[in-house]
Structure formats: structure tokens, C-alpha cells
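This part of the workshop introduces the protein records we will be handling. Getting from the letters to the C-alpha cells is the skill we practise here. An example says more than a description, so a record of this kind follows:
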Amino acid sequence: MERILAAAKAIASARRSRAPLKALAKDAVPRDEAEGYQVQRALHDLLQAQVGSLVGYKIGCTSAVMQEYIGIDHPCGGGVFEKVVHDSGVQLAAADYVHVGVECEIAVRLARNLAASEAPFTAEWVGEAIEAYYPAIEIVDDRYVKWETLGAPTLIADDFFAAGCVLGEAVPRNTAPDLLRVTGRAIINGKEESRGTGADVLGHPHNALAWLANHLAAEGRGLHAGQIVLTGSLIKTVWLKAGDSVLMELDGLGKVEATFT
């Protein structure tokens, strides 16, 4: 559809040039969230040369603090790409983003496929499909002139702020702590900025994963073994400036660090 591609091209152009995105042209604005996801898929095709292949997903607005902050009362998904998944300790240039921020997350790696034909998925079902957990920093980018005015369909079209992630050491599922009791702390330049718990993520991070699996299944798509899923932030987004060092500590899962130079 022409309007889907027009929207995807406009967003891809802004992402490549790191130019803050204004509202899309009236005839290109996705009319609803379903259309937003169509634009997102077209965008992924256009960005592949720049960011690499799709290796997983992020889920936004899974906690009350983030739903209130963004003003959207339900989860939203975006893509995670090969070239923007980093190991703990990475140094990244703040200038590579429009306005970079970080979120404290529990990430999962899948041991097996979750095919669309297996839906509907429950938290218990998807929990059994997890191979390992990671302490994670989701990197987000406020790529917009004023995101508050764009609406959920356009934010979804642009991967819902996603700009990559930093992963700590993998923790096998059979040795992982009770996620409900995991407290995550965001420490910026040595000072704790915020904290939250696994229970803040839709009641349990597995609920967020089940939401994603069911959302993709409704589009006839599945999750695949080896994919990474960021289940949602335990804290409100912390926006950064050049020179900031970031440490996320998650009880029982370990820590993950990054510096934005």
C-alpha cells in the first residue's frame, strides 16, 4: 500500500539522518495501531542495511510508571536489530542518537519457536520456552520534535523509541531468581536514579512475553528460537547527556553497564 511505504520511507529517512521526526504527512499517518505495525514492518525492510537483521523485539509500556509517562495504557512492540545489540561495558557515542535514554529491563532469550498456530499463549506457556534471562539496558531515542503529539500509531511505526540494547551475562532459566522479587536499580554516574521490580512489568515479565507472542500470532507471525525479547522497563526512562555512565543492577540477574561518550 502506497501510504504504508510513504510513512516507512519518511521514518527511515529521519532515522538515517538523525533528524528529529515531525508529524508525518497527513496522507501517510497510520490510521490505527494495526496500520502502525504495518509501517513498522516496512520500515524494518528499509533499515536492514543500516541496523542488520531483526533478532528480537522490545515491549514498551508494560509498567504503570511507563504507561503513565507515555500516556498509553497497553503494551506496544518494536524491533531489536543485530547491529545494535551490545555487550556490557560498551562505549557508545551520544551523538549517534537524537536524544538518548535508558531503561532497566529483564531480557529473555528463547529456547524454541512460538509459532502463530500455537496461540493463544499464556505466561506459563511462554515461560517454558525461555532459555535464559539477561540484565539489560534498553537504549531508547527520543527521535521526535515532540513525541507527545504524535500518537501511538506513529510511535509504533517507528519501533516505539527502540534504539538497541546492552546485555549482561546470561542467566539460565533453571538458575534464575523469582522475577517478581527482582529489584532493578538504575545508577547513573554512580548515583541511583530510579528502581522498580519484576512485578511492575504487567504483574510478571512472562505476561509481557505472552502479550508479544499473542500480538504477533494475530498477525500470523511467530517468535523464534534464539530471539531476544526486552520485556519492558522496571523504571521511568532516564534521559542522558554525553559523558554519562550507566549501571543497571538487577538482584539475582547481575549487572550491565554502558557509557555514552
Observations:
- The domain at 54-260 is CATH 3.90.850.10 (Fumarylacetoacetate hydrolase; domain 2).
- The mean pLDDT is 97.
